Amino acid sequence: MKKIKRMLKIHRIFMAQEFKRMMEYKGDFIVGVIGFFLVQLSNLMFLWIIFGQIPNLAGWSVNEVVFIYGLSLIPKGIDHFFFDNLWSIGYFTVRKGDFDKYLTRPVNTLFHVLVEKIQIDALGEFIMGVALVCASVPNLHTEWDVFRILAMIFMIPFITLIFTGVKTITASVAFWTKRSGNVIYMFYTFSEFAKYPATIYNRFVQNIITYIIPFALTSYFPALFILKGENPLFNLGMPVLASAVLMGTGVLVWHRGIRAYESAGS
Q1: Could you tell me the residue ranges of all domains in the chain?
Q2: Rg of the chain's alpha carbons, rounded to an integer?
Q3: Among 249, 237, 92, CA closest to 166
Q4: pLDDT tens for residues 201-212?
Q5: Which one, out of 13, 28, 64, 206, has a CA that is 20 to 30 A from the CA of 194?
Q6: Residue 149 in contact with residue 61, Cβ under 8 Å?
């Protein structure tokens, strides 16, 4: 318990310092949030154009697709907000030898990296996701009950860890290769598939985004239960299992990587 309290206290300190740093550049923050909103609005316009020509997408109505789209943005936004510092590990921290500072401090290195920085522009991603889910709900032919609402809320932390787990594993590759930013980007790009029902893709892609890089578990499969009540054991259980496996693997690979780490830079 003492260790958890200490980690939470450290997290609060890092958060406070990061907010102070960001408030020095208010314009940059505002532009970042507005820019993200514009990107998401352009994606939504694309959806409306598609549905203007096609009444449904592989049996999914426009409101159901919007719900899945919004649901995919919520955990991605949370991961982006809290744990985006992993990208720096892949791109330059290890390559420049700056990772040495984490090894000289009495804090778990992975925990330190995860809580050191936040990305405030991720609020745009999160807010857009919540707005899309809320806007689609009144138009869905779904019988809402307490269990479905609680299940959706309960699932958010676990499906967030799917994003974080993928980033942790791919960022850790940098301990051997000095740079893994492109590896992170390549794997993380698959999260774009999570914005739409998995059934619109061919079987090969479905298997990839369900069992190998399981971003379909962050939105499509939870939505199958929330919207249609289908197979709760798989649709809710698999995301929880995947988050545990990915984060567990990420922690293991991270610590193996630290043992292989050699300071670089000049």
Answers
A1: 2-260
A2: 20
A3: 249
A4: 999 999 999 999
A5: 28
A6: no
